[in-house]
Every structure is written in C-alpha cells, then in structure tokens.
Amino acid sequence: MDDGSGTGAGRGRSLPAPLGGGPATIEEVAAAAGVSRSTVSRVVNGSTAVSPHALAAVQDAIARLGYVPNRAARSLALRQTHAIALVVPEDTRRFFGDPYFGAVVAGISDRIARSDYILNLLIASDDPGGRMTGFVRNGGVDGAIILSHHNSDAFVDRIVEAVPVVFGGRRTNGAEDDWFVDVDNVTGGRQAVEHLRSIGRRRIATVTGPLSMAGGVDRLAGFRERLAEDGLEPFAEIPGDYSEASGARAAQELLARAAEQGGALPDAVFAASDLMARGVLRTLRGAGVRIPEDVAIVGFDDSPVALSTDPPLTTIRQPMHAQGVALAGVLIDRLTGSAPPHRTTLGTELVVRGSA
Asked: Is 181 helix (H, G, I), strand (E, B) or coil?
C-alpha cells in the first residue's frame, strides 16, 4: 500500500475477482492498483492530491473491475450531502453588479464540475445570517466557501463551528488555523503607486476599499508603504465600498475640496476597485478634468469594467477565476481527507491602458 505518491502503485498485483460475484468494492480497487483505500477515495472524489502514477493505476483498476461508487449508500452512511455552500454576506445588488463575483463564481463552478459536489449559492442580503447559518448547521451542506466577509459578520463563526470552511480572502479578525485563498493585495497597492510614480505623479490620492475587510486594509497598506519610500504623504484617503457610486462620491469630494480651499486636485488617484475607478473617472471628466493629463487613474481587478471607460483603465489585475478554482479545490481537498495548505496567495499584475 502507499499514500498516493505512486511508489509501487499497481506493481506486481494480480487482479482480484469481486467477492461473491457482486460489484467491486473500493478495497478491491485499492488492492488491484497497489495503493491505499484513501488514495482510491481521492481519485473517485476528484482530488488533485494524487500523483499521476497512482492516478493512472487507480483508473486502470476501476476500469478493469467495473467499479461503480455507491454514492447514495456512502452519503447516507456518512451523512454527506455532496453539496457545498457559497456564502456571500453582501447585498444582492452588489453581488450581481460587481464583475468580481461573477469571475470568482465561474472559477468555483469550473472546479466543482470536476468533482461529485454541487454548489448552493447563499447570499446574506437582508438576512443577517440566521436562516443561512441554520441551513448550514442543520446538515444542508458538507462544507462552505465564504466570500466577501466583513469583521461584523459574526454569524461566520457559527458556520466555521459546523462544517469545513475556506475563506475568499483572509479574515482580519480570523483564527491562525483558518483556510483561505487570497491575492497579494499589499503588492497590488504598491504596484499602483509604483506606476504612478514612474510617470511623474506626486500628489496621489486613494479611494479605499472597506476597511472592515482585509483586502481594503492591505491595498491601503501597500499604497502607503510605496509612497513613504519616496518620502511622500497621501494627498487624500477617501473611504469607499468598492461600488461605482462610492468612487463618484470620492471624486465629488476631491472637487469640492479644491473649490472650497482654492487648492489643486491630486494629479493621480488609486481606486481600490475598477468600479470605484470608473466612478472617479466619469465624475472628474464630467467636471472638465482631463484624464490622464490632469489626473491619472489606476483601478484594481482588471474586470470588464476596465475596458468600459474612456480612456480604458490602467488597473491591477487580480486572478479572479483562478481564485475561485483554488477556493473550491482547497475545500474539496479538505472534504476528501487531503491536507491542503491553510494559506494560498495569488499574485497581482499591473495592466497599463489609457487612464494612467
């Protein structure tokens, strides 16, 4: 037997006949493949934590023995539903209006399609988590992915107590043993400022993401760090919530400050989402500000929104689809007995277009 590394998989094994002439069992498949029962289980459940050699040996044994997993009996015995919840503590308008969610959900769906699981979408909206938590805790799903969570979402802890959970983004008030998949938001904030400094901008403002979320905190931290390296202070830090409307309000505030105080506008703005960047760009252009000649603008996401503006947005690309694939993969590995890493961090990339 082995642990899935493939050492000796299938080597020197004779093919056993199914006991009593009945359907082959998982134990017989393991014996025929020369691997452990848990390795066969991982293959059957679509886990990627199996070596190519072991995978081939198990698939060959399954084909030769005609093994068919008894899903219904296994689920009943283990009280499994083969369902995963995607929990989104957000308003429905934001969920359906922000391309970030669509891209991440597409990645989650693509990974789950290669497994035995189905996906249930649970949007908190006006429900502060009560019905959602009850559904999860009463055995409605085997595990959960929690995406776009805030510090105030106390019901999240009740879900963590009930089923295996993977978070989309780290929790600022989370536990050391959380599982999460995130992007390198600090580096993304730094990349935005690095580019703006490279084109000579010095009076750089930011529209932050929600500071109740780690992504907003980390993007602001990267922004501040890179400015400080050049001995600069932020021109302004205006809070936003990732929505286009909050970007427009931030731009209006910058225009009002300049008008009231007889001062200048910033010569650049880093907005922590593409939607906020579009709100800034449209509002400033509507006031006669030239983009990028007067004010350069950098967003964050590289969503389709970045191509909808005039000029198109320079932005920080985060791999949203890949984040979804990784989220589902980590949770499936947990549910099938593998040991995925607690922390998975994906990189960001500057994409230069016309706005900066």
From this structure: strand
Cα 264 to Cα 258, 276, 355: the distances in Å are 5, 21, 19
Model pLDDT for residues 221-280, shown as the tens digit of each residue: 999 999 999 999 999 999 999 999 999 999 999 999 888 877 789 999 999 999 999 999
How far is Cα 31 from Cα 17, in angstroms, rounded to an integer? Answer: 11
Cα 73 to chain centroid, rounded: 33
Q: What DSSP string runs through 191-255?
A: HHHHHHHHTT--SEEEEE--TTSHHHHHHHHHHHHHHHHTT---SEEEE--SSHHHHHHHHHHHH
Sign, Cα dihedral of 311, 315, 319, 323: negative
Catalogue the long-range contacts made by 252-260 (C-beta closer than 8 Å, 24 or more residues apart): 252/283, 254/205, 254/284, 255/283, 255/284, 255/287
Which letter does DSSP use for residue 318 in this model? -
Give the three-class secondary structure for 313: coil
Q: What is 82-115 written as a DSSP string?
A: -EEEEEE-S-HHHHHH-HHHHHHHHHHHHHHTTS
Q: What's the alpha-carbon Rg for the chain, to the nearest Å?
A: 25
pTM of the entire predicted model: 0.75
1, 33 contact by CB (below 8 A) = no
